[in-house]
Specification:
The chain has three helices and eight strands, in the order βββββαβαβαβ. The protein is of the alpha/beta class. It has one domain: 3-Layer(aba) Sandwich (Hypothetical Protein Mth938, Chain: A), CATH 3.40.1230.10. The strands form two sheets. A five-stranded mixed β-sheet has the order 5-4-8-6-7, with helices on both faces. It has a three-stranded antiparallel β-sheet with strand order 1-2-3, with helices on one face. A hairpin with a 2-residue loop joins strand 2 (21-24) and strand 3 (27-30). The protein starts with 13 loop residues before the first strand and ends with a strand.
Length: 117
């Protein structure tokens, strides 16, 4: 197997996560976070996806990490994101973090909405 170092071309990857926190760009964020094309920010209201919809033209795929287990995203939330042109993938937070980093390294237009484990 051949291994390659990931190159994020100036974008901020998820460097680490644990119980209640994420490490992004050398900064620790406690609680839920949004990773937008403009950079990471605290996600104060986990039912509010408007910051993502506002940047829909910059996002092809949104990874929603809903904690340690996979859960369902409200149908109206999913419909609002998809109607804005954003593909939505819901998964556990660890899976969302890994997948986000891989696609970010590929230069894909991704975002993430993450609830800590």
């Amino acid at each position: 197997m051949e291994l390659h170092e990931m190159n994020f071309a100036g974008e901020i990857p998820i460097e680490g996560y644990g119980p209640g926190f994420f490490r992004l760009g050398g900064e620790v964020f406690h609680g839920p976070v949004l990773l937008l094309p403009s950079g990471p920010q605290r996600w104060e209201d986990v039912d509010d996806f408007s910051p993502l919809i506002a940047r829909a033209s910059e996002i092809d795929v949104l990874f929603v990490g809903l904690g340690a287990e996979i859960d369902l995203l409200a149908l109206e939330t999913r419909a609002g994101l998809e109607n804005a042109g954003i593909g939505v993938e819901v998964m556990s937070t660890p899976s969302a973090c890994r997948t986000y980093n891989v696609l970010l390294a590929e230069g894909r237009r991704v975002a993430a909405a993450l609830i800590p484990v």
